[in-house]
Amino acid sequence: MNTPPTPDAAHRDSGYARLILSALRRHPDRPAFRWTAEGRPHTLTYRETAERIERVAAALGRLRTTPDRAVALLTGPRPEAFTTMAAACLAGIRFTALHPLGTSDNDAYVLRDSGADLLIVDETRFAERAATARTTTTVVTLNELADQAAHITPTTRDPRGPACYLFYTGGTTGEPKGVVLGDRSLTANAWAGTTWSWPERTTFLITTPMSHAAGLLIAPGLLRGATFVIHPGFDPDRVLDAVEHHGGDTTVHGPPQHNTRLI
Asked: Number of folded domains in the chain?
């Protein structure tokens, strides 16, 4: 039976990012993420995901010039939406994400409100939008960050300080509000998610932005050995085809409107 480590480990470990790394090291050869880009299928194993998080954390540490400022991320459906957040937590850097369906005005507000002085952007989709919203924020592309990370040997010293994910609400009653998800809250959320009825070998379809609610489901899934299949967006026919392809151990996360269209 695929069971996670006991929650007591949360008190012996050093927090959310280390919990993620320990989960990834339990099944090094298992696929963590599968997705399609430029017409080609891609796979990132648990081992490769852990290595990426550690290297990006080291790269973020070098890029930081103002320790009390935040790092922001603007990306679409790709593994970096999760691994960059985990890396920021590992490096002890306050992190926030811009919504991929947002506007440049919304981006500018979140960047100002969060105190972000570094914006990491998916240049394949959002270069123009980032240029409009960035104001005085330094912009680094995901490719540039990956290149720096590839030439860094992660330090054995734990760089982590108090991790914080500044999660912005939808702004339906005005401007979005920044909700602080601290390290202990993120860790508790991950352990709580492991209590769900995860199948032995879950395939989890991600059809909504990983930079937001869907991304918070990845840590508990990794603790239960899940594989995440990233879709470019919600398409009922593609989702149903994927469910038939992967079989009975497939899980889909989505708002009620999506679930209604699948029934």
From this structure: 1
Q: What is the CATH number of the domain that holds 25?
A: 3.40.50.12780
Q: Which residue intervals of the chain are DSSP H helices?
A: 9-12, 16-26, 46-63, 80-91, 104-114, 123-133, 142-150, 183-193, 218-223, 236-246, 256-262
Q: Is residue 4 part of a domain?
A: no
Adjacency order of strands within the sheet including 250-253: 40-45, 31-37, 227-230, 203-206, 250-253
CA distances from 114 to 2, 79, 151 (A): 39, 23, 30
Q: What is the C-alpha to C-alpha distance for residues 85 and 91, in angstroms, rounded to an integer?
A: 10
Identify the band that residue 10 occupies on the pLDDT scale cut at 50, 70 and 90. very low
The pLDDT of residue 29: 97
Q: Write out the residue range of the structural domain in which residue 225 sits.
A: 9-262
Contacts of 245 (CB under 8 A, 6+ apart): none
On whether the pTM is more than 0.70, the answer is yes
- For residue 1, being part of any structural domain is answered with no
Q: What Rg, from alpha-carbon coordinates, does the chain have?
A: 18
151-155, 169-173, 246-250: least confident range: 246-250
- Residue 156 CB partners (closer than 8 Å, separation 6+): none
Query: Which of 36-45, 109-118, 165-174, 224-233 is the least confident region?
Result: 165-174
